[in-house]
Amino acid sequence: MSEVVAYTREGNVGVISVNYPPVNALSHAVRAGLVSALEQGQKDAEADILLLVCEGRTFIAGADIREFGKPLQEPGLPDVINAYESSDKPIVAAIHGTALGGGLETALGCHYRVALASAKVGLPEVKLGLLPGAGGTQRLPRLVGAQKALEMITSGNFVGARDALALGIVDAVEGGDDIRQVGLAYAQKLAGEGAPVRRVRDISDKVEADKGSDVFDQFRAGLAKKARGLFSPFKCVDAVEAAFTLPFAEGLKRERELFKECMESPQRAGLVHSFFAEREVSKVKGLAKDTPVREVKSVGIIGAGTMGGGIAMNFANVGIPATIVEVKQDALDRGLAVIRRNYENSAKKGKLTAEQVEERMGLIKTSLSYDDFRDVDLVIEAVFENMAVKKEIFAKLDEVCKPGAILASNTSTLDIDEIASATKRPEDVVGMHFFSPANVMKLLENVRGSKTSDEVKATVMAVAKKINKVGVMVGNCHGFVGNRMLHKRGAEAMALVNEGASPQQVDKVLTDLGFPMGQFAMSDLAGIDVGYRIREERRNAGEDVPASWMDKLVEQGRLGQKTQAGVYKYEEGSRAPVVDPEVEQLIESFRAEQGIVAREVTDQEILERCMYVMVNEGAKILDEGIADRSLDIDVVWIYGYGFPAYRGGPMFWADQVGLDNILAAVKNYNNTVGGEQWKPAPLLEKLVAEGRKFSDL
Ligand code: 3H9
């Protein structure tokens, strides 16, 4: 008997139970086990009806993603499901947890479905760059019609059990939490009624009703905007359409062909890498799994600006009270008003009820005194980037906070060790770098200082999870992982414009690569005075920082979106960047002043200089141990800067481009453009010499 799928009998019900932790994914062993258990059930004269049920936390959550890219071992999933659907004895699927992808497809191959009220179902293959490839695109529309099937399959969103019942995906929903008992009772009831075999492939009314409908073209038009640059959502529409134009068996064949196309696409590889990378980052290298985690039941936040307010919202959203401290009452009032407005906007969109808004506002307190931090478990400082100010704050926190409280800085660039040196407890000091808007962006870059204790590291990673962020642990250096790489890209983008490119040309190359916005649109969003101040500080410190056309913009009061003019101009109330002829003129006169003769800059050069400079810096970051693994860098960029997940992050992307190609270009720019940023990273040279990739490290 298979170890992962067992066949037993209870009364007249043959029970096929899957036990393959953690999520009962359809590995080869599970598929083979399902087939042999079915054969036993068919042969079992005492079994009138069969029940498919899973052990552990969930019904089958899909194909085993770890098998993707490896040669298929028979039986393939479509054959397993066809065998279940063809069974002469009725089969009931009993669903708890999440029936996803191949899991829901397996349930759709059964003749009846009963679910716990807490269960969810969905076909999330599109999020992995795929489409449901085991009959999901042919069976689901037969139950729910074209529109709903397209919505579910192209979005990958889950549906709760009650909605699934209303849609006809499941036949019954039960309370409680004992899925085996629920499944047995339902199967016995059906057997008692003499319920016949009922195959989804034979249900045709919805297909007939939607034949010839223009819903497919409408969907494609909608996706052209929503799924820009993506491959598989369009293939999903093609596959669902086949359910309405082809007989079932041929529809399955068409689905298979389209599934293979998706499976072979680089986007599938990028998205699967992103899926696992997001989960791997929670396992911090060198941190024992059983490291104790401190309880965080209340937090203090210093600074009621956009950042401080956004950070407070994260905690209030999960029921953790937050106290914000500022020096002036009007700053607190302003900050609180912004938080309220954000929540009320969510309520207007139907995402929160009025009670929830008040509940969350009730969890956010304000104060003018650090004394209110006496009992908090974690304090996050979110004031402007000035070391002297931060050190003063941390010295005060050291006096006020209870022993064991974690003292965190939201600094985006500054030295955590120097901040920690202002306290007598550097082991409790850590960086927690949120990304703006902090209530929206998923990334939390946790920065370990040289003395940060393991317990504190483990706790801030746990806090990230608790507030629904993706936490990545990184080392301490100027800009950490994300901003250190971003600054290199920013400087290169600015130089490209000096040399002859236009800001919009640079931005277009980046948005064509899949970024939601380009370098300059992003600078306008953040405020271009930020970079200006950094350049000025470096100049004052005697560094040789070349003059830039962007300095001129700031000197003219064009600070970005907040002044409706920066690198672009902005119409009142709009965030859409509009090319401004005044800026074009300013750039031209800057070039004339500097004696620069503009040359034609190709899109390829923009791509290489903006992206390879980041990859080269990423390699240095890895070499220095600032990031433990290349996947940590990938996750920082996907969740903090909108790097297209389907390209897997900058280091995964570099592997696909070919590290030898990248190194050759880096060497070329080292000779032609020059500068520290183009000195080839030793790690990049080593990997190329050894014929290895970042992902092999
Ligand atoms: C598919 O089905 C294709 C078919 O249409 C056609 C085939 C022919 N495989 O997320 P968690 C691991 S495509 C292998 O932390 P949660 C995961 O890596 C598939 N492993 O837990 C992690 O491992 P570790 C369609 C998987 O409770 C552990 O399980 N299905 C798979 O927050 C726990 O995961 C999907 O896309 C898998 N399919 O969330 C579903 N799934 O402990 C993808 C998970 O070593 N999965 N693991 O780090 C999910 O959405 C979530 O994992 C789930 C649980 C909601 C199930």
UniProtKB/TrEMBL annotation:
Reactions this protein catalyses: a (3S)-3-hydroxyacyl-CoA + NAD(+) = a 3-oxoacyl-CoA + NADH + H(+)
Subcellular location: Peroxisome
Pfam families in the cross-refs: 3HCDH, 3HCDH_N, ECH_1
One GO BP: fatty acid beta-oxidation
NAD is among the record's keywords: yes
Pathway as given in its UniProt record: Lipid metabolism; fatty acid beta-oxidation
Keywords noted in UniProt: Fatty acid metabolism, Isomerase, Lipid degradation, Lipid metabolism, Lyase, Multifunctional enzyme, NAD, Oxidoreductase, Peroxisome
Domain 3-hydroxyacyl-CoA dehydrogenase NAD binding: start-end pairs: 299-476
Domain 3-hydroxyacyl-CoA dehydrogenase C-terminal: 479-570, 606-692
Gene Ontology MF terms: (3S)-3-hydroxyacyl-CoA dehydrogenase (NAD+) activity; enoyl-CoA hydratase activity; isomerase activity; NAD+ binding
Subunit-level organization: Monomer.
Stated family: Belongs to the enoyl-CoA hydratase/isomerase family.
PANTHER family: 3-HYDROXYACYL-COA DEHYROGENASE, PEROXISOMAL BIFUNCTIONAL ENZYME
Listed name of the protein: 3-hydroxyacyl-CoA dehydrogenase
Organism annotation: Marinobacter vinifirmus
